[in-house]
Amino acid sequence: MKFRALVVGLAAAALTLTACGQSGSPGGSAGPVVSEAPAANVQVPDSATFAAMQQRGRVVIGVKDDQPGLGFKDATTGEYSGFDIEIARLVAAKLGFGTDKIDYKTVPSAAREDAISRGEVDYYVGTYTINDSRKQRVSFAGPYFIAGQSLLVRADETAITGKDTLKGKKVCSVTGSTPIQRVRDQGLTEPNNIVEFQTYTQCVDQLLSNQVDAVTTDDAILKGYASQQPDKLKVVGETFSTEPYGIGLNHDDAALRGKIIDILQTAYDDGSWQKIYDNTLGKSGSPASPPALQRY
């Protein structure tokens, strides 16, 4: 895969990320990697979402909180950190909202479209794969990251070596996620062997307690979990998808989407994206460059 290098060695990254952020936070720095004053006098004409942000004086961002290296909430400090969180903060700053004007709202995968379409969040940044089905209900700015589906198993597992060895095995992922739908659509295991929960952490707990045989989602997420318990967990097999992560937005708010695409393009061009990557997932030692943006 073109951006396979993005996540190679992420296991090492999640262990070292703690050193560059808030104590105890494995996802990255607690404060923004790219520090700058929020932009002044920002205008996004014809954006109802942006108008709502301005009226309340705060931005509400949908995120994940259980994905080390991407979107993670420290249980002790309450700080959010990781690559996705940094991208969310960058966008907020460019829209005129500093870190003290951000409200993070944890939204499970199955509820993302509802949360966006109902206006419960202004935008969503959390390993959110861009696909045609979701575009029927929401729009996306991006992609800002590319990953691929893989498998997490127990360290002593020898029978599961890739997607073609899942028959008869219990496979877990998050309800409403692209990975579990792919397992179902491709018949990788029997329907009664598909197990779904609201969070990946619940799936990992089931794996550790021998209730399921594998957890499947994007390899970046899985390697974050494996890095926390390398003596108990490992990622196996080649990736079997291409997952372009986008920022989820209200379906009809083309103005805000265009603004965020411009923000991402500027971050690509001025090195801000690279700085964010290098200080979060890049701690793995694996180089990466930003993917091309989609301007549909």
TrEMBL record:
The record ties this protein, via Gene3D superfamilies, to:
Periplasmic binding protein-like II (3.40.190.10)
Q: Which UniProt keywords apply?
A: Signal, Transport
Q: Which InterPro entries match?
A: Bact_solute-bind_prot3, SBP_3_CS, Solute-binding_3/MltF_N
Q: Where is the signal peptide?
A: 1-21
| Limits of the Solute-binding protein family 3/N-terminal domain | 58-284
Annotated coiled-coil segments of the chain: none
Question: Which protein family is it in?
Answer: Belongs to the bacterial solute-binding protein 3 family.
Q: Spell out the protein name for this chain.
A: Glutamate ABC transporter substrate-binding protein
Q: Which organism is it from?
A: Pseudonocardia lutea
